Amino acid sequence: MDFSTTIYDSTQHENFYLPASTGQALSASEITSFISEILSTLELEKLGEIYFRQLNGFFPTSGFSLSDIDTRWVYGNATLTSTLVTLPLSGAESQDGKPVTAHYYFTVPLALSERNALEQLHMLFAKQVVQAQSFSRLHRMTTKDVLTGLGNRSGFDQALVRQLGWAQRHEEGFSLLVIDLDNFKSVNDTHGHREGDNVLVHVATQLQQVLRDEDEAFRFGGDEFCCILDCQTQQQLECAASRIQLSINQSSYLRRMNVSCSLGGAIYREGDDIGKLFDRADAALYKVKQSGKNSYLAA
Fold first, then answer.
1. How confident is the model at residue 138 (pLDDT cuts 50, 70, 90)?
2. Crossing angle of helices 234-249/193-210, nearest 10°?
């Protein structure tokens, strides 16, 4: 990678690199230590955290962002006066298959020797990002529901563990929504299991159309679905549940099948584990089913 090219045309400051003597950008021991750290995980979020920590040891770094891959993956506290550097992550892709860029923020412009060091680290990091994305794609194949294309029970469990970890580290809330289809058994009994499968696929499509990019939907099992939502308040959670319920109730196909949905929700609380959070949402769902179905309740 040649840093004298237009890669750095997006920096906010002229004369981005301060003149300094060239030479080996990083020592062999520094490179070895760096590689050892970034090879310690193939989970992209953790990889970004490790890389940002490494950057802080070498440069006057104020922030680092992998928002092209996931909007949540922003590290540090960059300011408007930070010097911005954007570098392509060769071989890496966004969720929609587009090339991605890493965004670096520095408190002061880099010296030439620091530029050389950044070149080395970025190239090594980019290779690990590509490996991590390949692992993630392979992993998704084992955590997807074959029928609906949503995450399966295993995928849900793993995603919820990740979301709990994120909430605990960053003190950012989220919500869980458990959805059960009303009258689904009668579809199988009256129209057969093939039509029942069509109902499940149709509901999955409705969920994917209604949810935002930062939300995730899963087929938990049978005719039960779960959604992990970027909602921090009861009002936000109720709004998300209403969108889902409205989408299902307005479907002419689901109305013809006499299928509606009952929903139970819960917002993450400090000290929650998977069991506590899920049990609250599931208990709310049970109350809805007992009180007449086709409604929503939050724990």
1. confident
2. 140
Instruction: Write the CB contacts of 244 (distance below 8 Å, at least 6 apart in sequence).
Output: 177, 179, 206, 207, 210, 211, 227, 261, 263
Q: What is the predicted pLDDT for the residue at 25?
A: 66
What's the CA gap between 85 and 103, in Å, rounded? 6
Q: Give me the mean pLDDT over the 275-299 stretch.
A: 95
Average the pLDDT over 47-74 and give the result.
94
Instruction: Give yes or no for residue 219 having a pLDDT over 60.
Output: yes
**Alpha-carbon distances, residue 189 vs 181, 183, 201, 289 (angstroms):** 15, 10, 18, 20
Report whether pLDDT(18) > 60. no
Q: What is the token pair recorded at 75?
A: 């590290």
Name the region of 5 (left: φ>0; alpha: ψ -120 to 50; beta: rest). beta
Nearest partner of 214 among 279, 248, 251, 163, judged by Cα: 163
Nearest to 227 by CA among 286, 144, 219, 279: 219
Q: Which residues contact 296 (CB under 8 A, 6 or more apart)?
A: 238, 241, 242, 245, 262, 263, 264, 265, 288
